[in-house]
Each structure stands twice: as C-alpha cells, then as structure tokens.
Design goal:
Structural class: alpha/beta
Largest sheet: 5 strands, parallel
Shape: elongated
CATH architecture of the largest domain: 3-Layer(aba) Sandwich
Strand order of the largest sheet: 2-5-8-1-9
Number of helices: 13
CATH superfamily of the largest domain: P-loop containing nucleotide triphosphate hydrolases
Number of strands: 9
CATH topology of the largest domain: Rossmann fold
Order of helices and strands: HHHEHEHEEHEHEEEHEHHHHH
Length: about 290
C-alpha cells in the first residue's frame, strides 16, 4: 500500500495485518477519547482511502458519531482539520475566503482572508465538510477540482491558482432524508469513497459512556445502553425520528445523570429536543419503564 503519511505504528500494524489485534487498537482509541467504530473495518477502510489520497464521505444518521470519526482520523494522521458547515447560505466566500480592508504603515490596502478550503490546501491539512447535502447544488461544484486528481482551484477573488500541498485530504459527512437536504449529484458523489456509519450499540456504547461521560454507576450505564437500543429499534421501525436516537444526546443525558435523576436527564437531553408530541411521549414511556 502506498501512503503519503507517517502513520502511527498501531494503525500501520492494522493496515498491514501484523502485530496487533484489532481489539487492542479499539481500546487505545477508547482511552484517547476517539471514535469507537462498530466494526474495525470502518476504521481500516477510511484510513486506507485517506492514505491513498482519496476523499471520504461519512454517511449515517444524526448523532452516530460522524464528526467524532472525522476528528479521530485527523488525530491519527497527526493532521489539523479545517471545517466547513454547509447550509443554504453557503457561498464562495464561506469556502474560499473574503477580501477586507487592512492598514500597513498607515496605508490602506485590500487583504484576502483565506477560508477553510484555501487554508487546508495551502497548509496541506485535512478539510472537513459537514452536512454536505445542505448546500445549494450550485455552490459545491466550485470545489470539484479540489476533490479530484487535480487538487487545484482558481480562487475567484484573487484569480490565483491554488494547488493543494501534500497531506491535503477531504472528509465529508452527510445526513440523508432531512428537511433542507438535497441529493448529491453524481459528479460530486463519485469523487468520494463512501463509509456508512451506523449507530454504536452494546459493549462499545457502554465503553464510550464509561470513558466519555461523568457517569460511573454501572447499573445506570447499563440502563442507558438498553435505552439506546430501544430508541434505535424504534427509529428503524419508523416510530421515532433519528434525532431521538442520537448518541450525542444520549451521552449528554449520561453526563446529566451524574447530577440529576436519569429520567429528568433524558427529558432535558433527548425528549425536549423532539418536536412531535407522539415521539416525546414514546421516549418518556421508555425512560419511565427503565428508570
């Protein structure tokens, strides 16, 4: 395998199938507070793609850990990461940067302030594009050249041709089917290797709660793992929206449970975020049964 990076030894061992067991690396990631993949293959495949200079698209439900996954990949590659948060208001300035007036030696001059795309390219670091399908379809084609083999772009504000330095890579994340999202066009989707990121469950979720929240009571932790399983099942059955099963929200509830009763923690961290009364009552009933 050809790599452009000095990968940490534990990751290199996994890629080359040598010294360490997969479980050892998972434990190391957990201790570091990194993303814990439901299957080690997700991590291997993402690292393999990035080490070859390919773009990675993380696809999955909200709160499944896509941003944490991207941050973990950035840390494993020892790469800083510039971020773009997509919305309908995303424009060229949000991606590339903008011009502003500055003063030097008492003289007024026009200065260009680089945006996340130009910064990541010029510094040879990672670029993270969150909720990429929230952007207007006419905005993202601006960076098509950044996402293919050319790794170049003409800055529309300075007319400078920018070629990414070695080490530049793109990770994007997508939540499908949400209000305000649009399907990715084929030209854009074909520029990515797609990694499907499912919810964390079972023992891995338990370990995540133990290492990333204040909650220490094992009985309560087990109950939260059961709650998450029930919420995820309800999402798959169409009874709840994906927001209800967000792992991020569950971890918030676990943190709060260190200070307030678990049922009230679930109310604040999960229930009160839901819009439909039917969904709110469903989650409240689950919490009442468990806690």
């Amino acid at each position: 395998m050809h790599t452009n990076y000095n990968l940490p030894e534990n990751i290199t061992d996994i890629l080359y199938n040598t010294k360490r067991k997969d479980d050892d690396t998972l434990q190391e990631l957990i201790k570091q507070g990194g993303y814990v993949p439901p299957q080690i293959d997700l991590l291997i495949d993402a690292i393999s793609a990035l080490s070859m200079g390919k773009n990675v698209l993380l696809k999955g439900p909200t709160g499944a850990g896509k941003t944490k996954f991207a941050e973990t990949l950035s840390n494993l590659f020892h790469q800083p990461m510039f971020s773009v948060n997509c919305s309908v208001d995303l424009d060229a300035e949000s991606l590339m940067g903008f011009k502003t007036l500055s003063y030097e030696d008492g003289k007024q001059q026009i200065e260009f302030v680089p945006g996340p795309v130009t910064s990541a390219m010029n510094n040879g670091t990672f670029l993270y594009i969150d909720e990429v399908n929230m952007a207007k379809p006419e905005t993202l084609p601006l960076i098509n050249g950044v996402l293919d083999y050319r790794r170049t772009i003409t800055n529309p504000f300075t007319n400078e041709i920018i070629t990414a330095k070695e080490g530049f890579n793109v990770i994007a994340a997508i939540n499908e089917g949400y209000v305000g999202t649009v399907p990715l066009n084929e030209a854009l989707k074909n520029r990515f290797i797609v990694i499907d990121v499912p919810y964390l469950e079972g023992e891995q979720l338990k370990e995540l709660i133990q290492t990333n929240t204040r909650l220490t009571d094992q009985t309560t932790i087990d109950l939260f793992v059961t709650l998450s399983t029930d919420l995820i099942r309800a999402v798959y059955q169409g009874k709840l929206s994906e927001d209800a099963a967000s792992i991020r929200a569950l971890l918030d509830a676990c943190d709060l449970s260190d200070m307030i009763p678990p049922k009230r923690a679930v109310l604040r961290a999960i229930v009160d975020k839901l819009d439909e009364e039917r969904e709110r009552e469903f989650v409240i009933n689950l919490a009442d049964t468990l806690f």
